[in-house]
Design goal:
Helix 4 runs parallel beside helix 5 and helix 4 crosses helix 10. It is built from 10 helices and 8 strands. Strands 3-2-1-4-5-6-7-8 form an 8-stranded mixed β-sheet, with helices on both faces. It has a single domain, classed as Rossmann fold (3-Layer(aba) Sandwich). A hairpin with a 2-residue loop joins strand 5 and strand 6. With 250 residues, it is of the alpha/beta class. Helices cover 36% and strands 18% of the residues.
Length: 250
């Protein structure tokens, strides 16, 4: 780590839980961010500013005017451009030392399987359960940890799923694929702009903890935020013995 990096990350290095060793772990880490919208924007910017060495951005969509209320990786000059190219430009302006790969395509199981060959962690910032269930299966196969979050209106929830942890539940233990909740999105229900910023920042925080091996990540716990009254609550999660996805996992 050179003098410029030591200065850039000096506030991290001062933390006894992190230090130079933890910062070097971040520099060697490779993270895939699935979705560059309201959640993916702060996730990408914080992971880049924190010194995560390699980011892979996946989003098939382009930037439109309704995005700019909350998707802070994009601006008025990004309208009509792909979200991954817009986010990449913002990331490199913030930290040119980060390697950024982009895929302006819709994720599929085959593509996720290919991408995860060289990935240490996935941050889920998408907006549908079908993609999350697909991601859950691939992460189980690859033993890749991933961070789930969802936010709508003034409510949010998040958790960390880590197949490397013995007896840790998977996403399907919490949301069985045959009983997934009805899909909702901010186009129909709306979302208060700072909510996705708060939750995306929490996802980035959990990502850094997992990558650097510090603290206690949100594994086997579901964190819920009700922003109207600004109340956080937590629910303990257990691996379900009859889970359709992970019941046979060793």
């Amino acid at each position: 780590m050179g003098d410029e990096e030591l200065l850039r990350y000096s506030r991290h290095i001062l933390l006894p839980e992190l230090g130079i060793e933890g910062q070097e772990k971040l520099r060697q880490s490779r993270v895939l961010i699935l979705g560059l919208g309201g959640l993916g924007s702060p996730v990408a910017l914080y992971l880049a500013s924190s010194g995560v060495g390699e980011l892979t951005l996946v989003d098939h969509d382009t930037v439109d005017l309704t995005n700019l209320q909350r998707q802070i990786a994009h601006d008025s000059q990004s309208l009509g451009h792909t979200k991954v190219s817009s986010a990449k430009a913002r990331i490199l302006a913030l930290n040119p030392g980060v390697q950024v790969h982009t895929h302006a395509v819709r994720a599929s199981r085959e593509l996720l399987t290919e991408w995860l060959e060289d990935i240490d962690l996935v941050v889920d910032c998408c907006d549908n359960f079908a993609t999350r269930h697909m991601l859950n299966r691939v992460c189980l196969e690859k033993k890749t940890p991933w961070i789930f979050a969802g936010a709508i209106s003034m409510d949010a929830q998040m958790s960390v799923f880590d197949p490397r942890v013995p007896d840790a539940p998977c996403f399907a233990c919490l949301f069985p694929p045959d009983l997934s909740p009805e899909e909702v999105n901010c186009a129909s229900l709306g979302v208060l702009a700072p909510l996705v910023g708060v939750v995306g920042a929490l996802q980035a925080l959990e990502a850094l903890k997992v990558l650097a091996g510090v603290g206690e990540p949100l594994v086997a716990r579901l964190l819920m935020l009700e922003a109207r009254q600004m109340r956080f609550s937590e629910m303990r999660l257990k691996r379900q013995p009859n889970c359709l996805v992970c019941a046979d996992r060793v």
